[in-house]
């Protein structure tokens, strides 16, 4: 083994007691004694919030609902396991090879039943050997040092030819994260020249999406689905592409097709419900969101906004009685969550407005406005619903405050246009234009003032100005980008400041998360890492 087995920690996720015991005994034969057990996906998630393990051995079938693949996707999606944790699937299905070939978030390995202890330990040995080769790169990625991680991938491609394809795949993903879409595109094309690898085809289509070449991206994702109807990630990206193209009906159909193949993924069901609500397809939205609410009650990722979406669909179908029942269910099952008071108040206002109970609606709206705290992380959709119900109750001033907040934090001009279209539907087009212009002027003035201060050499003043802008507009891409630039200019001109460097990195990561195709990411990432090298600072040192 590449590492002392006595140092290896393992979590076994298995609902069958006899199999848990068998796996534990097999590990003990190899000298692995640090073993933790989880009987359900939920138990595993709760333990993994607190402890990292070297290896997770997970049964594919975990009972009704979530299977091992869905657990893995949740763990990766919510960043509950580090890159260096090895996830190995255990399954009795020989068809799993087809499943794993059709997922972007694949396990490190899988073992088919029945198997001996020698076979299991051999697979663990190989996985640990591979991890050792990737560990320096993983540490750089975890520290946020993408550019050096890319260089370590290049080195790995030369030093570990057995893992060439894996290093190429990781390097392509890192190029995308760093805003270097052209470099990622070259890697995917290079891989496809030698072999028709599904993940490379997906990656190539993703680069087209990030470059706003939506028609070409749509063609790429559609071709992948035609080749393999089980390629779930291609469905998700195709739906996202069609939404970006304004083709909501096409996005809805794509999501419905995906759910026929894989019916248990809550994220996908939720998106189908949201799109169906936008389209006014209340029947589909009710069916889908009812399932999301049912699945979410006992989930570690439950969200009271799902109840709001279901209430909205039920009211759209004219069923206030069902909406009231959903509201009561929210109060019971979502008690104690930070967003619940806001979601409860908004849902109450929506139900009362439809029933003509204006007094109750007014009181609920007061409550909703009081609880509309930006720290809650409420979605754009929820805030739009809050603005809508304010307008329906002739509270234009409060609606304007909510809409201004939404527009200030809109990722791009397209998001602002969608909000303006909502106001057109509500008969208030002039309000949308007026508020959009006010926000545009606000952002322009704040950034101009920050830039002017920096040009005059007042780097402290520039940072103060941009920090105020971030506090006011924490989700605005332009503000985040210019705030990080202001912090980096301060470091360049006045010397190393670990707090400013940490803030700059945080803002760059926010931009990367919200707008991974932003053409300015490449330059500011290079600027940031250039300053680190200039001052001899490693990313994990601040």
Automatic annotation (TrEMBL):
<keyword id="KW-0805">Transcription regulation</keyword>
<feature type="domain" description="Response regulatory">
    <location>
        <begin position="9"/>
        <end position="128"/>
    </location>
</feature>
<dbReference type="InterPro" id="IPR039420">
    <property type="entry name" value="WalR-like"/>
</dbReference>
<dbReference type="Pfam" id="PF00072">
    <property type="entry name" value="Response_reg"/>
</dbReference>
<dbReference type="Pfam" id="PF14559">
    <property type="entry name" value="TPR_19"/>
</dbReference>
<keyword id="KW-0802">TPR repeat</keyword>
<protein>
    <submittedName>
        <fullName>Tetratricopeptide repeat protein</fullName>
    </submittedName>
</protein>
<keyword id="KW-0902">Two-component regulatory system</keyword>
<keyword id="KW-0597">Phosphoprotein</keyword>
<feature type="repeat" description="TPR">
    <location>
        <begin position="232"/>
        <end position="265"/>
    </location>
</feature>
<dbReference type="InterPro" id="IPR011990">
    <property type="entry name" value="TPR-like_helical_dom_sf"/>
</dbReference>
<dbReference type="InterPro" id="IPR001789">
    <property type="entry name" value="Sig_transdc_resp-reg_receiver"/>
</dbReference>
<dbReference type="InterPro" id="IPR019734">
    <property type="entry name" value="TPR_rpt"/>
</dbReference>
<dbReference type="Pfam" id="PF13432">
    <property type="entry name" value="TPR_16"/>
</dbReference>
<keyword id="KW-0238">DNA-binding</keyword>
<dbReference type="InterPro" id="IPR011006">
    <property type="entry name" value="CheY-like_superfamily"/>
</dbReference>
<keyword id="KW-0804">Transcription</keyword>
């Amino acid at each position: 083994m590449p590492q002392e087995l006595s140092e290896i920690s393992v979590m076994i996720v298995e609902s069958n007691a006899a199999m848990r015991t068998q796996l534990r005994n097999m590990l003990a034969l190899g000298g692995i004694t640090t073993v933790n057990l989880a009987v359900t996906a939920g138990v595993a998630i709760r333990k993994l919030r607190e402890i990292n393990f070297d290896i997770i051995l997970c049964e594919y079938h975990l009972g009704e609902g979530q299977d091992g693949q869905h657990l893995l996707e949740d763990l990766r999606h919510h960043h509950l396991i580090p890159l260096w944790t090895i996830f190995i699937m255990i399954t009795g299905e020989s068809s799993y090879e087809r499943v794993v070939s059709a997922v972007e978030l694949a396990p490190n390995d899988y073992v088919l039943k029945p198997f001996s202890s020698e076979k299991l330990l051999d697979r663990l040995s190989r996985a640990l050997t591979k991890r050792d080769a990737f560990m320096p790169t993983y540490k750089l990625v975890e520290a946020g040092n993408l550019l050096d991680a890319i260089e370590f991938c290049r080195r790995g491609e030369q030093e570990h030819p057995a893992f060439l394809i894996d290093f190429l795949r990781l390097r392509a993903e890192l190029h995308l994260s760093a805003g270097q879409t052209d470099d990622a595109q070259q890697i995917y094309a290079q891989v496809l020249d030698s072999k028709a690898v599904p993940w490379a085809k997906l990656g190539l289509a993703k680069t087209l999406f990030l470059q706003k070449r939506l028609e070409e991206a749509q063609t790429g994702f559609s071709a992948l689905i035609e080749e393999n109807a089980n390629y779930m990630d291609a469905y998700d990206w195709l739906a996202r592409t069609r939404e970006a193209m304004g083709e909501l009906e096409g996005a809805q159909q794509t999501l419905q097709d995906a759910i026929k193949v894989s019916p248990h993924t809550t994220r996908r069901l939720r998106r189908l419900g949201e799109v169906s609500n936008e389209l006014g397809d209340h029947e589909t939205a009710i069916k889908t969101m009812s399932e999301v609410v049912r699945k979410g009650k006992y989930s570690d990722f439950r969200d009271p906004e799902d109840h709001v979406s279901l209430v909205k669909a039920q009211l759209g179908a004219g069923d206030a009685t069902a909406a009231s029942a959903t509201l009561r269910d929210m109060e019971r099952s979502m008690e104690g969550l930070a967003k619940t008071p806001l979601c409860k108040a908004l849902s109450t206002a929506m139900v009362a407005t439809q029933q003509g109970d204006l007094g109750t609606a007014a009181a609920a709206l007061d409550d909703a406005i009081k609880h509309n705290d930006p720290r809650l992380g409420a979605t754009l959709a929820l805030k739009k619903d809050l603005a809508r119900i304010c307008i329906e109750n002739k509270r234009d001033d409060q609606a304007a405050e909510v809409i201004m907040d939404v527009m200030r934090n809109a990722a791009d001009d397209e998001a602002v246009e969608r909000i303006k279209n909502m106001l057109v539907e509500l008969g208030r087009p002039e309000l949308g234009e007026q508020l959009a212009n006010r926000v545009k002027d606000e952002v322009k003035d704040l950034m101009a003032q920050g830039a002017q201060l920096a040009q005059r050499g007042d780097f402290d003043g520039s940072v103060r100005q941009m920090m105020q802008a971030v506090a006011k507009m924490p989700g605005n891409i332009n503000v985040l980008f210019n705030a990080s630039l202001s912090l980096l200019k301060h470091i360049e001109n006045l010397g190393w400041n670990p707090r400013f460097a940490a803030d700059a990195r945080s803002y760059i990561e926010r931009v990367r998360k919200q707008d991974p195709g932003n053409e300015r990411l490449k330059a500011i990432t290079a600027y940031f890492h250039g300053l680190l090298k200039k001052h001899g600072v490693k990313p994990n040192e601040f």
